[in-house]
Amino acid sequence: MKKLVASVLSLALLIPAAGSVYAQPGYHKKVKDVEFVGMAAPQTDAERNDLMYSDASIRVTDPNGHQRTVDLSYNLLFKPGDVINGKITGTTVDAEGHVITDDSGRRFISTAPDSNSLMKVAGKLYLINHFESIPSNREKGRLPNAVYLNRVEQDKKTGKLTVTDITPVDFSADGGIWTPCAGILSPWNTHLGAEEYEPDARLMNGIRTTQRLHNLPATITMIRKKSGILISTAIFLKLP
């Protein structure tokens, strides 16, 4: 159940539940400052059981000093298994880009999307997301997971985001991807992601202290460029 909750939340973006005025072209020129207003942890059972609970808000200040507080709410973009532009989200592919299925033709679908980076490149919006795990199975054994580059459209009147296309990122030239986990949008508007585990556990053999671990140099591998976006995935430690 925890995996399912994570999968729903990780593909939902927290956005202002404001009127269309905030989505009007040029409105950002009238905004002097935007401040995030936090919230207390959920207190009641109803709040704790709400998959998309938020009591946070933003405080918008215009150049004249006038302020307006806008509540935030979640906007669910998609769930694993949804069909977008004829493609099923959350599937994993082989080295040739073919969707991996079981012997009956059923597709394996991730239950744990993880990191998301929303970015604008050349005037277009993209969302990069990691699918961290695929349910275990007896037919195929442990399967590789996936990183997807998604095209996003924004309604100019309401500001609502909609994913219109999905494409798995091809890492076959690097031996594929294994368990893409944490990630972040870098200050240079690129996606920086990491594998969950060491590709070779023997590299960690003999490491007994945190200090020795921190002294190891980090190496970034598997850099791919799609639609003008640099995607650096699979960061791992490498012994000197």
**How would you sum up the global shape?**
globular
Order of the strands making up the biggest sheet: 1-4-3-2
Helix content estimate: under 10%
Average of per-residue pLDDT values: 75
Number of helices: 3
Structural class: mainly beta
Total number of beta strands? 16
Summarize the helix and strand pattern as letters. Answer: HEEHEEEEEEEEEEHEEEE
Q: What is the straight-line distance between the termini?
A: 42 Å
Which stretches are low in confidence, meaning pLDDT under 50 for 5 or more residues running? 1-10, 18-24, 209-223, 234-240
What does the radius of gyration come to? 20 Å
Strand content: 35-45%
Number of domains: 2
What summary fits the major beta sheet? 4 strands, antiparallel
